[in-house]
From TrEMBL:
Positions with biased composition (Low complexity): 1236-1250
Polar residues: compositionally biased ranges: 488-502
Stored PROSITE patterns: FN3 (PS50853), IG_LIKE (PS50835)
Record carries keyword Iron-sulfur: no
Name assigned to this protein: Down syndrome cell adhesion molecule
Location of the region described as Disordered in the Swiss-Prot/TrEMBL record: 488-509, 1124-1148, 1230-1255, 1270-1294
Keyword Cytoplasm: no
Organism per entry: Daphnia magna
Protein keywords: Cell adhesion, Disulfide bond, Immunoglobulin domain, Membrane, Repeat, Signal, Transmembrane, Transmembrane helix
Pfam family, one: I-set
Subcellular location as annotated: Membrane
Membrane-spanning segments: 1074-1096
Length: 1306
């Protein structure tokens, strides 16, 4: 047959392949090979081909060879290659032969004829066949072997077709019994099939008609227990009572077995059905029990049971309940039993037992349906149940009751308090509840106190907790811890204190001032200073120095060479170390860490150090080619690890004549430029000569290095220059994703062509080159290492993109733009012309990042999660095409589940677990792990989701008689002690309120406690009003809220009472002791206001426009005044606070700078009144002020509320100086007005318009500094009067109710 790319034949057919060389000079050598194995030609001595000869090759003539196979088998399939060669080169042609083979049984063994199994088991019907192409197997089934038609089987719930064509039935049922046929076909030859009989045996199946039967004691009729048994015979049937076999010879017990009607004993698909009966007559108490009917055969056993009850006692009392419970007594009520068992009731018996105590009883007459039990323990849980009794005995117990007596505060401390899991940053404190008899109630929580002498931490944990893990502690520190139990009545005594000393930890900071000095070409001296003392976390045991060379391109000197050089380390107790045996003239990365007994600390930042230069290493390889009729070109490969800066190379040559060295010469070749790495020697004498060459590298610092090995070359003057490749190949380790250029500098007569191949596969067409017109050449491969990060979306690497990024440059070099995982292997550049050919080989090994590690969750507590992982298993590559880089470190990335940004921790490569700390309590986190190497990062591991311990706050409901609220006519105090943090400390309480009648209105934020206190005062309420109060508790795990409905008590005084009863206020004002002080006070207030107006008006030279004291009805339609509660006062005076910003410098409502100077006070400001007592100024109110900001243009409640704050600093200073005669100074607040119209009084000195239109919906209050300012004033006062003194003018809260009332009076 003629040569073609492929041939498909059947087994037994003949094959003939003829190979003819159409061109090429003689002599020629023509040979055949199959799958890389040479086929020897058939010679005359061999004789003619016989029937037993598998393959024969005959040389027809000098340029034709024929390969023949008389009878094909499956083993003859493969690649057949014909190769022809002469002095000018070689050529080859290949054909792929496929031999089709009909189906046949593996090992020539068909499946078994019969397969037996048991119902409920699994069975595999094997049908192992082979053939080319792969046969297709079809299973079919029939119950009757003589049936003409089989049913084709497909996979379902109990049938599975395996990859090896076997049929698995699991579980097997009796209905699956029958005949199974497997038929194999592949379109070649005849089909084959096999028939298998599947026999399914049935184990016994036992069924009783019911599981409970009752018989009266002494009944003569008795009862019959019927048992049905199905299974393969023979069946062995027997009865048991309470697991004891029955004696069939007893007269009261009769057993018999008989075939049931409708059975099919002769059919394999219908197992035998039998019935067994047991008769119990004259039932006695001893006859009561569990009766079992059991059957067995050779395939298994089964049983079923029925409980037989003999009735002889009454039923238990009904509806037993607790009528009342006290600390020492429980009163019970019940109803009589539904049946007395046929005998009159004699008495009721109450059984009660505490946990761990003895069972006690109280007997009650049968005529009574109530009773009590006494002498109980308080705050104790009792289990109570009752029985009824008659002449035959007691009934079964009634439904149990769990009754708890009243509580008391615990009398005992928690037990078994101990510390475990002690580590550097914390420990776990565990305990057991107090003795049960000392708890006196339900333990609601535990109070854990941890004291270090400098830090005191108290944490409330739910009662379900029996341990607490403390985190964030200092290493190597002594702590004392104790626990208290808390119930609804209070806390109990503290447990004995536990002393714990945290262990050492690795240092948190690296060593300081890391420096290096180069001693010679192979030695470095590294120095450093210890880490800061506060971050050593224990006694420093020594230091570790990590160093590794920073090389980017490595030659493969042997197949077993490591992929990338790993670093080394040294350990020392000194502050300096000498590193020797290093690479010459190499950059090293240096890192130093300190370690304690607990482990290694943090590495210092990498420091790059360079060893000194040494004499250059000799070139590794030399190659000489004839580049012209009178010229030679020598090329060489520099040493892969330079030991100095090579400036040029020296080439030595000599000739050998009659055994003597003659004409020695020396040339200098540059180490840079287009001709770097090669030298052309011209003008050679036109005669045949043998040359010997050596090369040496030369450094300006260290001089000339050793010479390379001697390479000889025989020069023959000729005008026919054979194609030759000057470039020298080698092996290289290249990171995946790198860009590289492989050179192929070719010389020879034109036309000169080159072509590139990868593993024998041609990558490009032949490219014509002109050696005289080539551009810049490179002698060594150019590699740009590009580590890849698979998690970076902007840094993709297509595993199949290498071929698309390969191109041959115009100078013959091969450019690979992005090396993929599959890009490793042998790259060959072939050059040819009409005189011959040459080639150069490069071997590339692709270094890939480590595989993704496998991450898993190990443990968690309130502030940390412990993770464990295993490094990924790299795939092995025996061909040395790829290598996996070792991990240098791991990176843990984590974030809260709903967060977008990741935090990360860098871990040493030797670690396989880590506790990730400083996490939020009760929060779910996501974790991934990445392995990092010198060539990039691995893919991210599987995402692990874990949650720290802890839950949102919880309110523990109190007894109905207790209340969390304390009410006054104008305030409400909220008790917060019943809030439990459930493992996550409560960070803040937020308090809101609103009128109960305004259910659709917005909540008013009354304040927030952060950090939380035990109580909160909600002041400024209106007497006699209904309010809704909402308390929200927040911690790291979430929030919870509780709503209250409260009503403030009415405000009661003598004047209001007299007015209610029809009295008059006239006698009050007729009393001169009342009238005179009121008149004087009113006059003083009026004079003070007038004086202030005149003084500030003339001082500033600014005209003020007083707001209209009688605003229009329209303007006041939406104005409401709220007294810390959002309600409208009944006196009808309406006022709101301005929405202007209270910040200097003064600004008007439009945001522009106001015309008021900072020291000026608005004529409409509201001041707390001052009274003089003993020559010292005092505030008339002992409560701190609270201000509101209300939107007066909308019919809505208050939208903003300022914080509580103490009096102004200027007022405090004046009181300290005892200047009561002067008015107090206030911080400025601008009136809410807008500039409009021309200034009627003319221009003012500042040149700005000060015409203001007042806002009739504004009331102004003084700005009170925040608490921080008050603390500064307190410190100033203590400096003047002593460290233990406090300012007498500050008495806690300022009541905003009084402030608003004062503003209305003004």
């Amino acid at each position: 047959m003629a040569m073609s790319d492929s041939a498909v034949l059947n087994a037994g057919e003949r094959l003939a392949l003829q190979c003819a060389v159409v061109k090429g000079g003689l002599p020629l050598s023509v040979s055949w090979s199959k799958d890389g194995q040479a086929i020897a030609p058939t010679t005359a001595t061999t004789g003619p081909a016989t029937a037993t000869t598998t393959t024969s090759v005959r040389l027809v003539n000098e340029f034709t060879a024929t390969l023949t196979i008389e009878s094909l088998t499956g083993q003859h399939g493969g690649w057949y290659v014909c190769r022809a060669a002469n002095e000018g080169g070689r050529a080859e042609s290949a054909v792929h032969v496929v031999v089709q083979v009909p189906p046949f049984w593996v090992n020539q063994q068909p499946p078994a004829d019969t397969v037996q199994t048991v119902s409920g088991h699994s069975v595999e019907l094997k049908c192992h066949v082979h053939g080319v192409p792969t046969p297709q197997v079809i299973w079919s089934f029939t119950r009757d072997k003589t049936a003409d038609k089989y049913t084709t089987l497909f996979a379902n719930t109990n049938r599975t077709l395996l990859a090896n064509q076997s049929l698995v039935i699991s579980p097997v049922d009796v209905s699956d019994a029958g005949y199974y046929q497997c038929e194999a076909s592949n379109g070649v030859g005849n089909n084959i099939n096999a028939l298998m009989a599947l026999q399914v045996h049935a184990p016994p199946e036992v069924h009783l008609n019911q599981d409970y039967m009752a018989v009266r004691r002494g009944s003569l009729t008795g009862t019959v227990l019927k048992c049905s048994i199905r299974g393969d015979p023979p069946l062995n049937i027997h009865w048991r009572k309470d697991s004891v076999p029955l004696d069939p010879t007893q007269s009261r017990v009769v057993t018999r077995a008989q075939p049931a009607t409708g059975s099919h004993p002769s059919s394999s698909l219908h197992p035998t059905l039998l019935t067994s009966e047991l008769s119990v007559t004259n039932a006695a108490v001893a006859d009561e029990g569990l009766y079992e009917c059991a059957a067995s055969n050779m395939h298994g056993e089964d049983s079923d049971a029925v409980f037989l009850q003999v009735q002889d006692v009454p039923q238990p009392p009904l509806d037993v309940r607790v009528a009342s419970a006290a600390g020492r007594r429980i009163q019970l009520e019940w109803k009589p039993p539904a049946a007395d068992g046929g005998n009159p009731l004699q008495e009721f018996i109450i059984f009660y037992q505490s946990s761990g105590g003895d069972v006690r009883q109280e007997r009650i007459m049968a005529s009574q349906f109530s009773g009590s039990i006494g002498n109980l323990q308080p705050a104790t849980v009792y289990q109570v149940y009752m029985t009824a009794s008659n002449a035959l005995g007691q009934s079964q117990p009634s439904l149990g009751l769990t009754v708890t007596t009243d509580e008391e505060a615990p009398e005992g401390p928690p037990l078994q308090v101990g510390a475990s899991s002690v580590h550097a940053r914390g420990f776990t404190l565990s305990w057991a509840p107090p003795a049960h008899q000392l708890q006196h109630g339900i333990i609601q929580s535990y109070l854990v106190t941890i004291d270090s002498g400098r830090m005191l931490n108290r944490t409330v944990l739910p009662s379900s907790s029996n341990e607490y893990t403390m985190a964030g502690l200092r290493p190597n520190t002594n702590y004392h811890a104790y626990v208290q139990a808390v119930n609804n009545q209070g806390s109990g005594p503290a447990s004995p204190s536990v002393s714990v000393k945290t262990s050492e930890a690795p240092p948190e900071e690296p060593p300081l001032n890391v420096a290096c000095v180069s001693l010679n070409s192979q030695s470095l001296q590294i120095t450093w200073q210890p880490p800061p003392a506060d971050y050593r976390n224990g006694l420093l045991r020594g230091y570790r120095i990590f160093y590794e060379p920073l090389s980017e391109l490595l030659y493969l000197s042997s197949p077993d060479q490591s992929d990338l050089q790993t670093g080394s380390s040294q350990t020392t107790t000194e502050l300096t170390v000498f590193l020797s045996g290093l690479q010459k003239f190499a950059n090293y990365s240096i890192q130093v860490l300190a370690f304690t007994g607990a482990g290694d600390g943090v590495k210092s930042q990498p420091l790059t150090c360079t060893t000194e230069e040494d004499i250059p290493e000799m070139p590794t390889r030399l190659k000489i080619v004839q580049s012209g009729p009178d010229s030679l070109t020598i090329s060489w490969l520099p040493h892969p690890r330079p030991t100095s800066r090579v400036t040029h190379f020296t080439v030595y040559s000599k000739e050998i004549e009659r055994g003597q060295d003659v004409n020695p010469q020396k040339w200098t070749a540059a180490n840079s430029g287009p001709s770097a790495g090669r030298l052309e020697i011209r003008n050679l004498r036109p005669r045949r000569a043998v040359f010997y060459f050596q090369a040496a590298a030369v450094s300006s610092q260290a001089g000339e290095g050793p010479r390379s090995s001697t390479v000889s070359f025989t020069f023959n003057p000729t005008n026919k220059i054979v194609a030759a490749v000057v470039s020298i190949g080698s092996g290289y380790l290249v990171a995946r994703g790198s860009r590289l250029i492989l050179p192929c500098t070719a010389l020879g007569d034109t036309p000169l062509q080159i072509s590139w191949l990868q593993d024998g596969r041609q990558l490009s067409d032949w490219l014509n080159l002109n050696p005289l017109k080539l551009g810049e050449q490179i002698q060594q491969p150019w590699i740009q290492q590009r580590p890849h990060d698979p998690d970076d979306p902007d840094d993709p690497v297509d595993e199949n993109a290498t071929a698309g990024l390969i191109q041959v440059l115009t100078n013959g070099s091969l450019s690979i733009g992005q090396l993929s995982h599959n890009g490793g292997g042998n790259y060959t550049c072939q050059a040819r012309n009409r005189h011959g050919q040459d080639q150069v080989d490069y071997w590339l090994t692709v270094v890939t990042p480590p595989p993704a590690p496998q991450l898993r969750f190990a443990a968690s507590n309130w502030s940390s999660v412990t993770l464990q992982w295993a490094s990924g298993s790299p795939s092995t590559d025996q061909s040395n095409r790829t290598r996996v880089s070792a991990a240098r470190h791991y990176v843990i990335k984590y974030r809260p589940r709903e967060a977008a940004r990741w935090a990360q921790i860098v871990l040493p490569a030797t670690w396989r677990s880590v506790p990730v700390g400083d996490l939020n309590c009760g929060t779910e986190y996501e974790f991934v792990l990445v392995a990092s190497s010198r060539v990039g990062n691995s893919s991210s591991s599987n995402v692990v989701t874990a949650k720290t311990k802890g839950s949102p706050p919880e309110y523990l409901a109190a007894d109905a008689r207790d209340s969390d609220l304390t009410l006054t006519p104008t305030s409400c105090t909220v008790d917060l002690v019943r809030w439990q943090d459930r493992g996550c400390p409560i960070q803040q309480f937020i308090f809101r309120f609103r009128l109960a009648t305004d259910s659709a209105g917005e909540w008013i934020i009354a304040g927030a406690e952060s950090p939380p206190q035990q109580t909160f005062l909600l002041a400024g309420l209106i007497p006699g009003r209904d309010y809704a109060v909402r308390v929200t508790a927040l911690n790291a795990a979430g929030s919870a809220q509780r709503d209250y409905s409260v009503r403030t008590p009415p405000l009661v005084d003598s004047h209001s009472k007299s007015d209610v009863h029809g009295g008059s206020l006239a006698p009050l004002f007729s009393d001169p002791r009342v009238a005179v002080p009121m008149a004087v006070s009113s006059l003083a207030i009026v004079l003070t206001i007038v004086t202030l107006l005149l003084r500030y008006r003339y001082r500033s030279g600014t005209d003020y426009l007083r707001p209209d004291s009688h605003p229009q009805t329209v303007g006041n339609a939406n104005v409401r005044t709220y007294a810390d509660g959002g309600d409208t006062p009944e006196d009808g005076n309406s006022s709101t606070l301005s929405a202007c910003q209270k910040r200097p410098p003064p600004m008007d409502c439009s945001g522009r700078l106001s015309d008021y100077a900072p020291e000026q006070v608005s004529p409409y400001a509201v001041f707390p009144s001052l009274t003089s007592s003993g020559g010292k100024s005092q505030f008339s109110s002992s409560r701190r002020m609270k201000t509101f900001v209300v939107d007066g243009t909308k019919d809505s409640l208050s939208v903003e509320m300022s914080n509580y704050a103490p009096p102004a600093p200027s007022m405090i200073r004046r009181m300290h100086q005892q200047q009561a005669e002067e008015e107090p100074m206030y911080d400025y607040i601008a009136p809410c007005a807008t500039a409009s119209g021309p200034n009627p009084s003319g221009p003012n000195p500042s040149g700005r318009s000060n015409k203001l239109t007042s806002n009739p919906q504004s009331v102004f209050v003084p700005i009170i500094p925040a608490r921080s300012t008050w603390n500064q004033q307190q410190q100033m006062y203590r400096q003047q009067h002593g460290p233990n003194q406090s300012s007498p003018h500050y008495h806690g809260d300022w009541n905003n109710q009084e402030t608003l009332a004062l503003s209305q009076r003004l």
